[in-house]
Amino acid sequence: MNEIPLYNDLIGKIKEILTANSSISLLYIDCSKITKIEQVFGKKIYGDILREIKGAVLDMKGKEIMPEDIVATDNLDGSEFLVFLSKKPEEKDFSTDGFDTMCKKVSGCLNGAIFPLTFPYLQTKPKISVGYSIILHNPLIKEERLINKLIEDAKLMAGYREFKRLVQTKETLQELIIKEDISTFFQPVVNLNTFEIIGYEALSRGPEHTEYRSPAVLFDAAAETGLLLELDRLCRKKALLNARSLSPRYKLFINCLPSAIHDPEFKDEYLKAFIKEVAINPANIILEVTEREAVENFDSFKKAVTCYSSDMGFAVAVDDTGSGFSSLEMVVELKPQFIKLAMTVIRGIDKNILKQELVKAMFSLSEKINSIIIAEGIETQEELKVLQDICIPYGQGFLFAHPAFPFPGIKRF
């Protein structure tokens, strides 16, 4: 059982440390960002993950924290943790640098342990923030009041450290965008019956040997810091520039956010001139609309998409279909030329009858609205066989080829 008591239930022990050491130090661990999982996926999944997180916090004893340290929760939900440090200040490095090092160790440990648990739901790092504080014993003030102040100060410090992290992330991303330090890789889209390549999806990656190499981390950081439009614009530009040598017999799939339709550098004469410069036939370009942003006004969005189709000759694909309600709503509203099924739907489809029924339903819908389905994330022969049986015409994934530059071929079976 990974039960962690409320700190009020341990107040006697905490007061003893405060009195005996003439001070007490605290680490405050904020895991509240994962509550988004409960809002989207329900209380059972959230509860299961929270139990694992509590276990990870307790596992730090004897490693990142001392075995004698008191671990408690600050709320009934149990997503915020308090670690009351048992050592006297002179027995441990409780300087600013010492606390900072301790916070980094704890947050690094927990983020690493929790990431595999939360990624299927959040698709990003859990971003656990840790704060610290120390308070001196004052015989004139009630110990409970001192302990409450200790907790308040640690929470403020966690907020400050999180703000500092965001500022540093923003500075890093701004520099990355200014230097255009984005690489483009291409992954083939394959006919699942003939195994012929019909096109390539352009995939953006951040600088090598950094965490921003991962597109999930890269775009999540951009969303956090208000730089999504700027990053999305750069990725589209680099994708088109790097695809200049693509044979005209192939389609080019380019990801874009819904807000791209309002970008002045992605419309009208500016866009026409740029497409002419890179010498790509507009009829070969498919804009993959992702659901990282919500579409707030579908009427306005549909008009803009219609302009891309009629004025530029672009086709439109809805990406990550099946991973959330918004992608399904987009399919119904836009009736796109292409529907790309999310890899979360395809992964393990050979062992999941519900996923098979969902894909059959999507295939039936695609026929009614005259759309073409592409299955993403195919990794095994078994997954491929199920998709072939359902008559899904096209797909992509590691089974055929990993993303590469310039344009990889596919494995032969």
Protein traits:
413 residues, alpha/beta, eight-stranded mixed beta barrel, four-stranded antiparallel β-sheet, 13 helices, 12 strands, 46% helix, elongated
General description of the model:
With 413 residues, this protein is an alpha/beta fold. 46% of the residues lie in helices and 17% in strands. It has 13 helices and twelve strands. Strands 5-6-7-8-9-10-11-12 form an eight-stranded mixed β-barrel, surrounded by four helices. A four-stranded antiparallel sheet has the order 2-3-1-4. Strand 11, helix 13 (381-390) and strand 12 (394-395) form a beta-alpha-beta unit. Helix 5 crosses helix 6 (215-224). The mean pLDDT is 89.
> Helices and strands, in N-to-C order?
HEHHEEHEHEEHHEHEHEHEHHEHE
Total DSSP E strands: 12
Number of helices: 13
Strand order, biggest sheet?
Answer: 5-6-7-8-9-10-11-12
**Ends distance:** 48 Å
Indicate the percent of residues in helices.
40-55%
Structural class: alpha/beta
Most strands sheet: 8 strands, mixed, barrel
Gyration radius from CA atoms, angstroms: 26 Å
- The global form is elongated
**Low-pLDDT sequence parts:** none
Give the mean pLDDT.
89
Strand content: 15-25%
Secondary-structure blueprint:
Blueprint (H helix, E strand, L loop, with lengths): L10 H11 L1 E8 L4 H7 L1 H17 L10 E4 L6 E6 L10 H27 L6 E8 L6 H36 L4 E9 L5 E9 L9 H10 L3 H15 L8 E6 L11 H11 L6 E5 L8 H15 L2 E7 L3 H10 L3 E4 L1 H4 L6 H16 L3 E4 L5 H10 L3 E2 L18
Parallel strand pairs: 6-7, 7-8, 8-9, 9-10, 10-11, 11-12
Antiparallel strand pairs: 1-3, 1-4, 2-3, 5-6, 5-12
